[in-house]
Every structure is written in structure tokens, then in C-alpha cells.
Design brief:
It contains 11 helices and 12 strands. The chain is α/β, with parallel strands linked by helices. The two termini are 39 Å apart. Bound molecules: pyridoxal-5'-phosphate.
Length: 389
């Protein structure tokens, strides 16, 4: 069998062997519940505490500012629902961008429908950038929270969250950022970034699926969304996923150690893909910002080709990529992100996201650049053929 080439690291990353080893060790050697006061429980508690310190250190936070969750989706839900609930009766406004992940977008819609929250969706420009001035204009005296993602998962654009955070701070409004695609990839230090809440998950940084964290700056008002035993200082109750939490800590420590080296290597691979695709497939349109983009992400539209067909054809060639976000693939509607950046419907149908990672080599990129032009040509030729009736 030919070697598979995995180029969908924005969907998920393979687990680092050191992370897997730490996780298995906890599963097989630490049976205790962190809430139990006898030895087994104390050992589990010590591991959770150590991981909390590791996660906090990786982003310049205090350990008490980290709330462990089941991943990015839950962290986003907790941020939006928790802050809006804490301000209930005083403030009812929520400002988001038009290109947020569904974990934010659909949560905002749900709050709008069922909790009388006023949601303002700030548009983006053709590169997918949010204008901090537009955020400033969207804030009013009743805004409880602004939530703008750090980098977009579909087109890779990195948002000016520094400037947006400063606007929020000047207006006295808490600022949440979905940093799922960026923590461990781009510099992220809450001593410098004016973010009050940030969503993190493990499976985009070579950790396991199903665990993540919400950073909550000390003093930020947030209510709990779950009721139960009161773990995580009541902010996210439920027995802790000890092995997952340990894995997140190890994954974040490794990512912090490797980040600069990885970013330089990955952005060189990404640029080879962007330049190679553009020169070999002149009709290809790069989506997202040409320079302010994730170091691991190249995304395109191929007018006249179906994204799903491209994925299937590349899969048969042993190459894994995705069309827009994994969560929305399967749908034939253009994604909300491509619509928001003004990609025409026909072009948006042929969207492809190629994201490199630690295991990607120059040889993988060579193979992609050899295969992709002929696959695109074939799919476009099939799409042009008249349909038999
Ligand atoms: C930007 C962004 N936010 C949130 C999520 C959801 O995270 P999780 O898969 O941990 O629930 C993802 C993952 O696809 C993402 O890319």
C-alpha cells in the first residue's frame, strides 16, 4: 500500500508519542478520583494541578485562570453562555464576527432565539479580516461580550485580536477569542494579549480529542452552565478527565518548546503549496489573507470543480485534505465563511483546505503538487459534461 499523506491538520493532529505515553500511564496507573481525599485521589489531584500549571505557563496565565473542558466547542459555549448569564438583567448584547466557528456562531444564534440576547455579526473583508473599528461601532452600553476568533479554521486568516482586545478594554467589555487554531501555533500570551477569555483544545496541538480548556482572566464575570459536584471551582462541574487533562498539559508544553521551529518549517511548506498550486493551476483562487494567515494553512477555490469530488479523488490518490471545515463538509451549500468573504457560489463549491503539520515533508508537498493539477482538471471536465437525461 502506498504511504498516506495527511494534509488536514486543521481538522485534527496525530497524537504526539510522548503525549500518548503520558496518557496511557495515567489510565493504567492512576485509578483515583481527584475529589477523593485518600492517596489515590490525592495523586490524581496532583496530576490535574500539575497540568493546570503547565497549561497556564504555556499562555502566560495563572493556574487558577484555567478551566478544563471537553474541548473547544464546550469552551466556546461556556464563554458565551457563561458570560451572558452572569450579566443577565444588566447587559444583553453579544458581538461576534460573521466567520466564527459553528461552536460560536450557533451558540450565539441559540442565545438570540432562546435567551433574548441581541447578537451583532460584524462582517469581514475579502481577505477574511475583521476591522477593529467595526467592532468598536458594534459595541454599545449593553454589550456583555465580544467574541472574535484568533484565526479562522477554514481560510486561515489571523485576526487583529490585539487591536480588537484593546477596543474592548477601552469600552469595558469582556473579550473572548476562540484560539483553538492558534494556541501552540502562533504566539499566545495573555500577559500581552488583551483577551479575557480564550478557548483551547488538545486535538489541534498533537493531543487527544475530547479535552480542552477555557482561559478566564481573574475578575471576569462568568456563570456556570452545568450543575453537579462543583469541580473546577464550580465553573465546569463533573469528574475531571484526568488522563486527557494530563495529555493537554504535556501537549501544550511540547508545543511551546517547538512553536518557533515548527512555524518556520510549516510556513515554508505552506508557501511551497500556495506558489505551486497558483503556478500549476492558474484558475485557482487563494482564499483568506495572502500574508496574515496561519503558518500551516493553504486554502483555495477551484471554480468549476466540486470540493467533495476533489476530496474523494485525492483520497483515492492517498492524500487527505478537506473542503472548508470538517464540520460542514457533507453539505453542498457554500460555507458561511466563503460567503462572508464574497466568494461566488460557483467558486465556493470547489473549495479545498490543505493544512500541513509536524509530520509533513517536502516529498509530501511534491506529491500533492504532482497530483492536484490533474485531479482538478479531471473533475472540472466531468462537471462540464452535459448530464444525461
Ligand atoms: C476555530 C475552532 N473552534 C472550535 C472548534 C471545536 O473544537 P472541538 O473539536 O475541540 O470541539 C474547532 C475545531 O474544529 C475550531 O477549528
Amino acid at each position: 500500500m502506498t504511504e498516506r499523506i495527511y494534509l488536514d491538520h486543521a481538522a485534527t493532529t496525530p497524537v504526539d508519542p510522548e503525549v500518548a505515553e503520558a496518557m496511557v500511564r495515567v489510565l493504567s496507573e492512576v485509578p483515583g478520583n481527584p475529589s477523593s481525599i485518600y492517596a489515590e485521589g490525592r495523586r490524581a489531584r496532583a496530576l490535574v494541578d500539575r497540568s493546570r500549571a503547565e497549561v497556564a505557563a504555556a499562555i502566560g496565565a495563572q493556574p487558577g485562570e484555567i478551566v478544563f473542558t471537553s474541548g473547544g466547542t464546550e469552551a466556546d459555549n461556556l464563554a458565551l453562555r457563561g458570560v451572558l448569564k452572569a450579566y443577565r438583567g444588566e447587559r444583553d448584547g453579544l458581538v461576534i464576527s460573521a466567520i466564527e466557528h459553528h461552536a460560536v456562531l450557533d451558540t450565539a444564534e441559540d442565545l438570540e432565539r432562546h435567551a433574548h440576547v441581541r447578537v451583532t455579526r460584524v462582517p469581514v473583508d475579502r481577505d477574511g479580516l475583521v476591522d477593529p473599528l467595526a467592532v468598536e461601532r458594534a459595541i454599545d452600553g449593553r454589550t456583555a461580550l465580544v467574541s472574535i476568533m484568533h484565526a479562522n479554521n477554514e481560510v486561515g486568516t489571523v485576526e487583529p485580536i490585539d487591536a480588537i482586545g484593546r477596543v474592548c478594554r477601552a469600552k469595558g467589555v469582556p473579550f473572548h477569542t476562540d484560539a483553538v487554531q492558534t494556541v501552540g501555533v502562533l504566539p499566545f500570551d495573555v500577559r500581552e494579549l488583551p483577551a479575557d477569555l480564550a478557548s483551547i483544545n488538545a486535538h489541534k496541538l498533537y493531543g487527544p480529542k475530547g479535552v480542552g480548556a477555557l482561559y478566564v482572566r481573574g475578575g471576569t464575570r462568568i456563570a456556570t452552565m452545568q450543575t453537579g459536584g462543583g469541580q473546577e471551582k464550580g465553573r465546569r462541574t463533573g469528574t475531571e478527565n484526568v488522563a486527557g487533562i494530563v495529555a493537554l498539559g504535556v501537549a501544550m508544553r511540547i508545543a511551546a518548546e517547538r512553536r518557533e521551529r515548527d512555524a518556520a518549517r510549516l510556513s515554508a511548506l505552506r508557501d511551497r503549496i500556495i506558489d505551486g498550486v497558483r503556478s500549476r493551476i492558474p484558475a485557482a483562487v487563494l482564499t483568506g489573507h495572502p500574508t496574515r494567515r496561519l503558518p500551516n494553512s493553504a486554502s483555495f477555490c477551484f471554480p468549476g470543480a466540486q470540493g467533495e469530488s476533489l476530496i474523494v479523488a485525492l483520497d483515492l490518490e492517498g492524500i487527505s485534505v478537506s473542503s472548508g471545515s470538517a464540520c460542514t463538509s457533507g453539505s453542498t451549500e457554500p460555507s458561511h465563511v466563503l460567503t462572508a468573504i464574497g466568494v461566488a457560489r460557483d467558486a465556493a463549491q470547489g473549495s479545498l483546505r490543505i493544512t500541513v503539520g509536524r509530520d509533513t515533508t517536502d516529498a509530501h508537498v511534491d506529491r500533492l503538487l504532482e497530483v492536484l493539477p490533474r485531479v482538478v482538471e479531471r473533475i472540472r471536465a466531468v462537471s462540464r459534461e452535459p448530464v444525461a437525461t
